[in-house]
Amino acid sequence: MKRISKILFIALAAIFFLSANADAQDKKGTKKEVQVTFNLPDMSCHNCVNKLEAKMPHEKGVRDLKVTLEGKTIWISFDESKTTKEELAKALGKLGYPAKEVVKK
């Protein structure tokens, strides 16, 4: 009888562990990645590009970015559950680059 209760306990523990793990994976899959492009008219040199490439990846939620000196733009891919376009624009402003979102037509 003791052996059956041990086996039953182990089976229940395994089921609990597997269901908790599956739930955690489902929550990871709900992150929504969003892209935004900002115009940075005050960006004027490669040092500006280097500064943005060094500082912006550390902003909460930023996944990827591309800075273009010729177009004076920055494209950012970010996790919408961790930050917003407004927060990213504010961070760019604090770095000395007032940002205006480029609206696609």
SS-based class:
alpha+beta
CATH architecture of the largest domain: 2-Layer Sandwich
State the name of the first-level CATH class of the largest domain: Alpha Beta
Number of separate domains? 2
What best-fitting shape do the alpha-carbon axes yield?
rod-shaped
Number of helices: 3
End-to-end C-alpha gap: 72 Å
Radius of gyration: 23 Å
Number of strands: 4
Helical content (DSSP H or I, runs of 4+): 40-55%
Taking strands numbered 1, 2, ... along the chain, how are they ordered across the largest sheet?
2-3-1-4
Q: What is the CATH T-level topology of the largest domain?
A: Alpha-Beta Plaits
Oligomeric state of the chains present here: single chain
- Give the low-pLDDT segments: none
What do these coordinates show?
The structure is a single chain. The protein has 105 residues and is α+β, with helices and mostly antiparallel strands. It is rod-shaped. It folds into two domains: 1-29; 33-101, 2-Layer Sandwich (Alpha-Beta Plaits). Strands 2-3-1-4 form a four-stranded antiparallel β-sheet. It has three helices and four strands, in the order H-E-H-E-E-H-E. The termini are far apart. The longest helix has 27 residues, at 2-28.
